[in-house]
Design a protein that fits this description.
heterodimer; A: 767 residues; alpha+beta; Aldehyde Oxidoreductase, domain 4; Aldehyde Oxidoreductase, domain 3; 7-stranded mixed beta sheet; 6-stranded mixed beta sheet; 15 helices; 30 strands; globular; B: Uridine Diphospho-n-acetylenolpyruvylglucosamine Reductase, domain 2; Uridine Diphospho-n-acetylenolpyruvylglucosamine Reductase, domain 3; Enolase-like, domain 1; 5-stranded antiparallel beta sheet; 3-stranded parallel beta sheet; 12 helices; AldOxase/xan_DH_Mopterin-bd_sf (chain A); Molybdopterin-dependent oxidoreductase (chain A)
């Protein structure tokens, strides 16, 4: 359903039809297996004599555990082991950024679904029954579920309820604009809802160690957490990454991996776990529900003078990635606009709500919804077109972010906005033939053309690329060439983002070798870091390129020396080595003469700073931007919204694989659409309601709009390998705000809450 | 060592006729009949239900089609939603076809059956308001004798399925007049109904019959509103209504289905639901009399 009318993809360097190298649509090697259902995911793992695990989870969001009695469960026939907090030999607390989360809750339960105990049995049903038979006596406590009340509430955790506070001060606090608009915005709890639920297999090793076969997106970090919890040296724990069935951020649920390993170590048998859909919803991290209060000041021409904001992130019970999300929210609070004076108070607080963590575009998405809502309000107040007021304020290279950081990377925000503004609008359906209409409300026929209003809205979004605030973003890769074939060893996890395809393209480009294999990652390889924020395109892709270039030099050096020319005058393509003048022509295989060449390289971008106590600092390595124009149809009586088209213009640096890039953008805007219109995991009083794919609606093909990629701006980022930027997160960030803007235009209602509920899009008849 | 392979495979019977199915149920009273399995198997997979045995109804050819009997259609309980959604069926009972087409994604429609929709009796079951508006009846095959009861008696639990009984057929009068089914889900893709309205015109009995689904445990019939609007229609003439009458009908239906609580203000969610029902009923009537 996508149309690319941007620049044509670069032609392959190779004759024939097979795409080859950077800039071409090299197909993914997994695609066929995934389509045919033969691709092995974690839930498909099997080992001889395996046991099945089940986890007992808390039914209460906040309670004191008075007693845990596992005797009945342990005595059940078929049960092989029961583990609780008493059976954790190593560190009882863990966490991705801050070790504040217990492996098993023992004195206090802090969220619905927190693991309390785990069972291994010879049948999955036995394991579940045994887990249910564990007797836990609770003293139910009043849950803190309103993040605004978390400040004054009794501490839910020894670390306190305030996880982080960033007061950003930029410019003159006394500055006042001629026009002032205020708004209160809320963003709901989006679940990453990976189509494959969490699963894994733990296999004990004869040396007392354990191997975890899990769909990890950051195997080395998961290994370190697991080793600390098991009380083992890191080299006694190996994490092997299995097929990842969807990842929208950190696909870590330590609540699964740690009990699995403990049970395998205790029983000496392989142990398998497959989460039910309900457990999956309860266990993994969600997008931060956020409350945002904004005041925008502008002059009479619509130029922004000052932005004041208060941003409150609901982190759930544990810190996880909330600190990073808050930094992004505060830094991008004003969006990709030039604002001379910015004052933001940002807080991430602890509550008894479901846990929040890294879901792509965290922080940046929530503020995009709010600042774009404010831009619409300013436009209405000043009588300007929504696109026009945005155009008067766009950020460009050389401008300052409110964090004091100068934007040094390409920032073609105005060009992106112009591209979506000037793109043709989708035609109205032919009024005579109602069967052509796909009306809001879908195929059930409830829609009535007379009640449908069309609206057009705009949003500009930005995200940072790579980890921020001093994170050491390093990756290591090894390239081996032997017998006409290249092998890439890199622990960067293929989550569907296309890293293995990219690695193959890079090696094809540099070494001219067609047959490139990428080995499956595990923790015996050097670390490559998490699959998030476009890291692997940058750091792992960069490491692969460097290693490939080192191998290339090793291949060419002897030849160059022999013929008395420099390496630069030789080129490799299609397995052949030729000199610039065509005199020399030989093949890679002949040159290698059966030798095996290896090279390992690292890529480490320039360091960044932590935001200081006024929110200032060069915290980001790179930025990526996106402009989206949404066209929606709204049934103003029923409040049903259908997104007709999303026109996307994106700053990509350089197109590495056109087809894969289009797929990432389509997937991203659709995920954003889910948040805009339907996805919200409800947890009244901290108890998750309807944790199933029936209760939690995800966009389907009928909900997905036509995604039109009108422009891909290829302005290379000179500090990035290949000049390419991360592409997956920024469409997710921008599309909800664009859809909200379009619903505002269609209904005249002040849509300020995501997802947009039908009652927010109903226009009451004039009485 | 794992016992996972020993699923209850031997406890599944697959009869090829209704009589065999009834006999199989009689032989094993704890067995659960399963047709499309779209509700039942989801519960089994979630571990909520562990039937001792299953009687699969998928191979009973006689309940997978339909036949005509005395101005009515006798629909097999095993008709799938996909089959009911096809044009030939839509020419026969348009509202039921529309309801079938709106029920879930294609995978569910290919498996889910009419009988299953009635027996599971979910408040959001899409065929149920249509059957209520059509005043359909159901034929139950049992160990003693078959019996036929109005569908509403089954749905309300007034006359529930007896042990050993199977839902075999659904009898629907053929009206040869406009009928509509409208469903609000709040989204464009397949979803459960927030509210749905089935409306049929019955020129022979000079009636308009309407049923509202998903707002209560069973489909609701706003009888007074039906009678009022039937009285406005010129049955021998054009059979059209002014837009104001359609609007008033919508309000009437909505107020009947979501009644005022004496002394209490309606919560916002109920006001919103009432508005939705009013819009759906108005549109349904407008289209039926267009």
């Amino acid at each position: 359903m996508s149309v690319i009318d941007g620049s044509a993809p670069a032609a392959g360097t190779l004759a024939g039809d097979t795409p080859h190298g950077i800039g071409t649509s090299v197909p993914s090697t997994d695609a066929l297996a995934k389509t045919q259902g033969t691709y092995p995911y974690a839930a498909d793992l099997w080992a001889e004599g395996l046991l099945w695990a089940a986890v007992l989870r808390s039914p209460h969001p906040h309670a004191r555990i008075l007693r845990i009695d596992t005797a009945d469960a342990a005595a059940m026939p078929g049960v092989r082991a029961v583990v609780t907090h008493e059976d954790v030999p190593g560190d009882a607390m863990h966490g991705r950024r801050v070790a504040d989360r217990p492996v098993f809750a023992h004195d206090i339960v802090r969220h619905h679904g927190e693991p309390i105990a785990a069972v291994a049995a010879d049948h999955p049903d036995t394991a579940r029954l045994a887990a249910a038979a564990i007797l836990v006596e609770y003293e139910v406590l009043e849950p803190v579920t309103d993040p605004e009340k978390a400040f004054a509430a009794e501490p839910l955790h020894p670390d306190g309820n305030l996880i982080r506070h960033i007061p950003l001060r930029f410019g003159d606090p006394e500055a006042v604009g001629e026009v002032i608009v205020e708004g209160l915005y809320r963003v709901g709890r989006q679940d990453p809802a990976p189509i494959g639920a969490e699963a894994g297999l733990a296999v004990p090793r004869p040396d007392g160690g354990v191997e975890l076969y899990v769909a990890s997106t950051d195997p080395h970090a998961d290994r370190d957490i697991a080793a600390a919890c098991f009380g083992l040296e890191a080299d006694h724990v190996k994490v092997v990454v299995t097929g990842v069935p969807g990842a929208m951020g950190d696909r870590e649920d330590s609540g699964v991996q740690l009990p699995l390993g403990l049970l395998a170590l205790k029983t000496g048998c392989p142990v398998k776990f497959v989460a039910t859909r309900e457990e999956s919803f309860l266990g993994h991290a969600h997008r931060h529900p956020t409350l945002l209060r904004y005041r925008h000041h502008a002059d009479a021409e619509g130029r922004l003078v000052k932005v004041e904001a208060q941003i409150l992130l609901d982190a759930g019970a544990y810190a996880d990635a909330s600190s990073d999300a808050l930094a992004a929210a505060v830094a991008f609070a004003a969006g990709p606009y030039v604002v001379p004076h910015v004052f933001v108070e940002g807080w991430a607080v602890r509550t008894n709500n479901p846990p929040s963590g890294h879901v792509r575009g965290e922080g940046a998405l929530q503020v995009c919804t709010a600042y774009e809502g404010q831009m619409d309000k300013l436009a209405a107040k000043l009588g300007l077109e929504p696109a026009e007021i945005r155009m008067r304020n766009v950020l460009s290279t050389g401008d300052l972010l409110p964090t004091g950081q100068t934007v040094t990377c390409p920032a073609p925000v105005g060009e992106l906005l112009k591209a979506v503004r000037d793109a043709d609008l989708p035609p109205l359906p032919d009024g005579d033939d109602e069967s052509q209409w796909l009306l809001p409300g879908g195929t059930s026929g409830a829609g009535e053309p007379g009640a449908v209003r069309r609206g057009v809205g705009y949003a500009l979004g930005m995200v940072h690329v790579l980890g921020a605030e001093g994170t050491d973003e390093v990756s290591t890769a090894t390239v081996r060439v032997h017998d006409g074939r290249a092998t890439v060893i890199c622990a960067a996890v293929e989550t569907g983002q296309g890293f293995t395809t990219l690695a193959r393209q890079i090696v094809q480009e540099v070494l001219g070798v067609e047959d490139v294999r990428v080995l499956a990652p595990d923790t015996d390889q050097p670390p490559a870091g998490p699959s998030a924020r476009g890291r692997h395109t940058w750091v792992s892709g960069g490491a692969v390129e460097r290693a490939a270039k080192m191998v290339r030099t090793q291949v060419l050096q002897p030849l160059a020396a022999k013929f008395g020319m420099s390496v630069e005058l030789l080129s490799i393509a299609d397995g052949k080595i030729t000199s610039y003048d065509g005199v020399l022509s030989t093949t890679v295989a002949e040159t290698l003469d059966g030798k095996e060449l290896w090279a390992t390289a690292q890529c480490r971008p320039h360091p960044t700073d932590r935001l200081d106590d006024t929110g200032q600092g060069d915290a980001f390595v790179g930025l990526a931007f996106c402009a989206i124009r949404a066209v929606v149809d709204v049934d103003i009586e029923l409040g049903a919204v259908r997104v007709v088209e999303l026109a996307v213009a994106q700053d990509v640096g350089r197109i590495l694989n056109p087809r894969q890039l289009a797929a990432r953008i389509e997937a991203g805007v659709t995920q954003g659409l889910g948040l805009a219109l339907m996805e919200d995991l409800r947890a009244p009083r901290g108890v998750v309601k309807r944790p199933s794919l029936t209760g939690y609606a995800l966009p389907t093909a009928l909900d997905a709009p036509d995604v039109r990629i009108v422009k891909l701006v290829e302005e290379r980022d000179v500090v990035a390998p290949f000049g390419a930027k991360a592409v997956s997160a920024v469409p997710v960030v921008t599309s909800p705000a664009a859809i909200a803007s379009a619903v505002r235009a269609a209904t005249g209602r002040p849509v300020s809450r995501l997802p947009i509920r039908p009652q927010a899009a109903i226009v009451k008849p004039q009485a | 060592m794992s016992t996972y392979a020993q699923q209850t495979a031997e406890n599944v019977t697959l009869p090829s006729s209704l009589d065999e199915a009834v006999a199989a149920l009689a032989a094993m009273p704890s067995a659960v009949p399963v047709a499309g399995g779209t509700d039942l198997m989801a519960s089994v997979n979630a571990g909520l239900l562990r039937p001792a045995a299953l009687v699969g109804l998928g191979r009973i050819a006689e309940i997978r089609g339909w036949q005509y009997a005395d101005g009515a259609a006798l629909l097999g309980a095993g008709l799938t939603h996909a089959r009911m959604g096809r044009p030939d069926f839509a020419a026969l009972i348009p509202a039921l076809a529309a309801a079938a087409r709106s029920a879930g994604p294609p995978q569910i429609r290919n498996a889910g059956t009419l009988g299953g929709n009635i027996v599971s009796a979910a408040p959001t079951g899409d065929s149920l308001p249509v059957l209520a508006a059509l005043e359909a009846s159901v034929v139950l095959a049992g160990p003693e004798a078959d019996r036929e009861i109005p569908v509403s008696h089954l749905l309300t639990g007034m006359d529930p399925l007896r042990p050993g009984e199977l839902l075999a057929f659904v009898r629907i009068p053929l009206l040869h007049a406009p009928q509509t089914f409208l469903k609000a889900t709040g989204r464009t893709g397949p979803g459960r109904a927030v509210a749905s309205v089935a409306l049929v015109v019955d020129p022979a009995r000079r009636q308009v019959r309407c049923a509202v689904g998903a707002v209560a445990q069973v489909p609701l019939r706003p009888l007074e509103a039906e009678q009022w609007v039937a009285g406005l229609i010129d049955w021998d003439g054009e059979r059209t209504l002014a837009p104001e009458a359609c609007t008033a009908f919508g309000e009437y239906v909505a107020a009947a289905c979501i009644p005022d609580q004496p002394g209490v203000e309606l919560p916002p969610a109920a006001v919103q639901l009432r508005r939705t029902v009013a819009a759906l009923s108005r549109r349904a009537l407008g289209r039926a009399l267009a």
